[in-house]
Amino acid sequence: MEFEPDDDVRRLCVDRLGERAGGDLAALARPGFRLEAADAGQAADAADAVDAATGDRKPTGRCRLGGPALLEPDTTWPEFHGVPLSLHAVIDTDQLSPWPTGEGPDRSPGLLNFFHLDPDLPYDSVKDLEFSAPAACRVVPADPTRAVERPAPHPARSYPGRAVHAAPVTTLPDCWDLPDDAVAYDPDAHWGAASLLLDAFGDLDGNNSGGHQAFGWPGLSHTVPVVGFQDDEPYVHLLQLNEDHEFGWGWGDAGTLYFLIPESALRAGDFTRAEPHMRCC
User: Fold this and answer.
1) What structural domains does the chain harbor?
2) Against a cut of 0.85, is the pTM above it?
3) For residue 236, which of 260, 271, 268, 270 has the smallest C-alpha distance?
């Protein structure tokens, strides 16, 4: 679920769930960034994200979807079983404000290039590749002062570049990402925490499911948790990419691609442990 930065999320949670459960849910709030297409003709300006005269949204630094990668000169283009990965997004974390320090390193990691397997090859030649394997995605950081544009090598698929405005938002987990032990609920009235949230937040649950988003809690997870624990280690959401016809993106029926990383790896700045997760109807 997504809210504007100046919304009183704690008050909303308490009003709908009561002091105890509402306080539990509000404590799970995480900062995120809604990735919106920047308006044409606007130059990036971290100090003033929206044009005061026109209301147009400016690009947030070098954030973009598609386009060439922004890599340091000595960085090797990532591959999976010899097939080059496709660049899906670049997030300029130096320009994200506020930087979500609670889950990651104390300082932003610069540019993050998000790659996933999507070769421009006949299906029969790639049908045996596991597109959901951890190595089928890569998150590659780059020093903004050294990064240069790098076009995708054949047969990696290239997408048109779209500059994006990263709008700060406050996020809460949707019902399927809420563990039963995260909030207090009456087991005689609800079959789990998800049931409690569906009753109290049914009008808001999944309200950030239709767009692209960096960090925070992901949008609608199609009745299956996205962020959770694997091998008893908590995971953190890095990027959500939804179906987008301009890029030809689609991961199943109304599907979404998520990039996740173990919390300990994010704190250490070790993006080699990022993983792709896909959900669809």
Assistant:
1) 2-279 (2.30.320.10)
2) yes
3) 260
